[in-house]
Amino acid sequence: xxxxxxxxxxxxxxxxxxxxxxxxYPGIDTLVRALGAGFILDASxxxxxxxxxxxxxxxxxxxxxxxxxxxxxxxxxxxxxxGSALYAVLAVAPGVTGISFGTVLLIRALxxxxxxxxxSLSMTMLMDLxxxxxxxxxxxxxxxxxxxxxxxxxxxxxxxxGPLVPLYAASALLVVVALLxxxxxxxxxxxxxxxxxxxxxxxxxxxxxxxxxxxxxxxxLTAGFFALxxxxxxxxxxxxxxxxxxxxxxxxxxxxxxxQYPFGVLSDRVGRTGPIVAGSSLYGLAVVGVGLAPSxxxxxxxxxxVGVIGALMAPAxxxxxxxxxxxxxxxxxxxxxNAAGSLGFLAGILVGGFVAGEYGYFAxxxxxxxxxxxxxxxxLPRLLRLELPTETQPTE
Length: 396
Known about the structure:
Blueprint: H1 3-22, H2 28-34, H3 40-69, H4 73-92, H5 101-128, H6 133-158, H7 165-181, H8 197-205, H9 210-237, H10 242-258, H11 260-270, H12 273-292, H13 296-324, H14 330-359, H15 361-385
């Protein structure tokens, strides 16, 4: 199989995993109500947080297992099929007598633990490909952005057919993920050590990885913030339906998707530092600008700007992981990056949800944007001092 075809299939896998995940966001309040929740803001927060807490806990585990065994494909296929089954269990949960919302959250956490294997390791398989780290991570980025861009409006429309329909759609998509992943050959080399503790030890052995991890945390914090607080803000402040909310979220995700690949290629040519520095300098300000917008039109324009800036940063940040990590430890390194990103997403949900509940939506936007600025300022000096290797880009 050619490298181009492998890259396309793996990007499709990443796309489908993200699509299944984001389908649930535009009407998350109606979903948790159908699943038996009480207070909607808190229930929505914990339903999203349960999945991402599992992402944080298990991303490193799956990465270490894949490095130790030299096998990624079976873990992607198994994770996707298990996640599919658990999405289906969530969809039928309201019909089961006596099931509590706490049990729903446990099932959601198990689904997250399985799904992160498919997501993190398919991205790692893209890292394993030759052809330029920026190009490969650009393909991952456009898949991530494309899945989220399509998932928001599509999920909003699916909620029109019923609050549980997005769960059934997510289950079906993960079956497709398993079928696609099974087509890809293994390129993995068995890593050194082969123990689960490698996931935790990797950062200590290569402290330079803390730089892309910090920026990955910042980038995903905003995504988590908009998944919960942004969704409920648009629904209440501007009285939007789930379908309309999905379209507003897509104003961020569409440019984020479309610009990932060209910005990834750009980072191969000009280096990682410029795109990351430029993006991080503006990202938090753009987030605060969305919260200040007095109309849905201006808020939508702000979402587009956030998407463009995010697209500039994301592929360069992921490629930086590949630049720094050794070839035999990419699974663990990318798992660490995904764990940091998932922790950021989780922080965006929990901190944003808490602040919005206690102090209002604008305070939550201010904390999210200001937090990104603060983290970026802390990490920027180390990034500027980092010496990166120069890649020679092959042609296909």
